[in-house]
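Exercise 7.
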Amino acid sequence: MTPSCFRALFLPLTVGRESSLALVNSLQGDEKLLGVVAQLDPRVEDPAAADLHKLGTLAKVHKTVKMPNGNVVIFLEGLQRIQVLELIGLRPFLQAAYRRNRTSSARRIPNLKHCSEMRRNSSATW
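Solution. The predicted structure, written as tokens, is:
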């Protein structure tokens, strides 16, 4: 089953990909927000814009737990549906311009997490 993040849903998610760990480690303060979008082909290790769905979810990280194997489990709350307009950064993790609910003005989202890793690493139902 391919994981999905939906608005108003709480979800544990295992993070192991280097770029995703860099994203999680960069989050600071109380407003730890990131964008979650599904990857079209989970076998692509380093996705570009064409490899990602355009619709996703803005999510808040409520808790992070470091595991003995180096992975991190994050607990997310889906906040709002987003539409990815364009990728504006690829390293150390993906960054994108996005629009909330298709009708609001475009904003810059500092963090973008793709779902292929979730599919490979998450044992939870998403």
